[in-house]
Each structure stands twice: as structure tokens, then as C-alpha cells.
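User: quick one, sequence for these C-alpha cells?
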């Protein structure tokens, strides 16, 4: 090599052999480091890795929580379904069906499809079911229907009697003392004697109907067109009941409104 000098002397005789080496100092080239602080580079890599892992852990946690919440929401409700038919077994299309929750008296409404079927997606609880259809006698199911979490409950098929071709319609709404509509009000219609029937002590045939006001506080009764008197009573928990009497004479539409006062505590 050009930058290195090598000299050697070799002496040998019968008693000894010596070797002498003389080396000039080596000159090293000073390499320029690519990173001034290699120890900080390792620290930075560790910090970045930790940051990435924290981000990944957070994302996975959020994903699991959202998935669990979604799954819980999906499994929370139950299905309540059924079918409405005429006396002859034909499906009634467009019948209005209402489900009122016993806990807070909230109401959900739906209508039957072309096959007369209806279905509700409801929170677990007991529900009262009411129904009404054009040209048929509406009413309420006597027995409460229980909805269980994640289960499907089928109500026995409801068969409605066809009303007479000519009917009188008693339709109205229920409000509170401030004019806001009241849903879930139980309305009961009962046939009562007219003034003439009372004087003549005439026997009056019994007729009773029930209805639950919808989410707009509305209700409707279809009654025979024959001259008659009816008493309708509106009742709702924590409100004073109210009764009104109306006379029906022929085929007509009769408007009716209730205004309920809260019970003083």
C-alpha cells in the first residue's frame, strides 16, 4: 500500500532467529455520521411506535364499543305482528292498528298490507291493541299483548264484523287544558236512552264500543244510523274523566272534542 512502509530485518544464526518490524502510524479517514444523535433516533422510533399503538388501541376500543352498542340496540326490541280479516276470511287492507305501551301510554300506529298483515317493532313491555277499518266495526283486544326482547309474538287473527252500509261517524280529539293533544286516552261509547225512551220506559238495546286516541289525540266511532243517544267517556291516568252525550239521527258525521283537566295532587 502507498501510505504504509514496511521494513524487515532478518538475522539468523545457529542460536537465535529475530524478526524486527517497523510500522508507520496509520492514518484513518474520518467518516461523516449520517445522524448526529443516533441515540435520539432510537428514542424517536420508540415514541412513534408507542403513539401508533395507542392510536390503534383507541380505534379498536371505539369499534368494539360501537359494535356492542349496535348489537345491543338490534337485540333490544321485539316484534308484534298479526292479521286482520273480514268475517269471510278475506284480508282487510288499510286497517289502522294501534299499540299502546302500558308503561308510558305511548302509541305506535301502522296499517295492514295487501294481505291484511301488520307488524310492530316495539320495546319489551305489555301493549294494548286497538284497530279500526272503513266499513267494519273497530275495537280493542281485551287481553294485553306481551313483547319480549329479541322475540317475535304473533297475535291471533282478528276478524271484524262488517258494519251496516249506512253509518254515522262520531269523530273528534282529546286535548289537555292547554290545548295540547292527548294520546292514549281510553274512550268508551255506550248506548243510553233518549228523553222519549226514558218517558216511555222503553227498553234500549245494549251497545258498547271502546277506542284509544292516537298520537294526535284523535278517535272515531261508527254507529248505526238509527236515531239514538250515546254517552262517550274519556279517561286518562292523572286526569279527571269527562263524559259527553250526543244524539245521532240518520247518516251524518258528528264532531266531538274533549278537554281534560289534570288531577290536583
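Assistant:
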Amino acid at each position: 500500500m502507498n501510505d504504509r512502509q514496511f521494513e524487515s530485518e532478518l538475522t539468523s544464526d545457529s542460536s537465535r532467529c529475530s524478526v524486527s518490524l517497523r510500522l508507520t502510524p496509520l492514518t484513518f479517514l474520518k467518516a461523516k455520521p449520517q445522524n448526529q444523535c443516533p441515540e435520539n433516533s432510537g428514542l424517536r422510533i420508540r415514541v412513534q411506535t408507542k403513539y401508533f399503538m395507542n392510536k390503534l388501541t383507541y380505534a379498536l376500543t371505539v369499534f368494539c364499543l360501537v359494535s356492542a352498542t349496535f348489537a345491543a340496540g338490534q337485540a333490544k326490541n321485539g316484534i308484534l305482528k298479526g292479521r286482520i280479516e273480514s268475517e269471510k276470511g278475506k284480508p282487510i287492507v288499510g286497517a289502522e292498528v294501534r299499540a299502546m305501551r302500558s308503561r308510558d301510554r305511548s302509541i305506535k300506529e301502522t296499517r295492514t298490507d295487501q294481505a291484511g298483515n301488520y307488524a310492530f317493532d316495539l320495546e319489551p313491555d305489555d301493549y294494548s291493541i286497538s284497530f279500526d277499518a272503513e266499513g267494519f266495526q273497530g275495537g280493542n283486544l281485551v287481553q294485553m299483548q306481551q313483547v319480549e326482547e329479541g322475540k317475535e309474538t304473533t297475535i291471533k287473527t282478528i276478524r271484524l264484523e262488517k258494519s251496516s252500509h249506512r253509518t254515522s261517524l262520531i269523530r273528534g280529539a282529546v286535548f289537555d287544558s292547554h290545548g295540547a293533544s292527548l294520546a292514549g286516552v281510553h274512550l268508551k261509547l255506550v248506548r243510553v236512552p233518549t228523553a222519549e225512551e226514558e218517558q216511555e220506559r222503553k227498553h234500549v238495546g245494549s251497545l258498547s264500543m271502546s277506542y284509544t286516541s292516537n298520537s294526535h289525540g284523535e278517535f272515531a266511532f261508527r254507529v248505526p244510523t238509527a236515531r239514538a243517544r250515546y254517552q262517550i267517556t274519556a279517561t286518562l291516568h292523572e286526569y279527571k274523566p269527562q263524559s259527553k252525550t250526543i244524539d245521532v239521527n240518520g247518516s251524518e258525521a258528528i264532531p266531538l272534542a274533549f278537554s281534560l283537566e289534570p288531577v290536583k295532587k
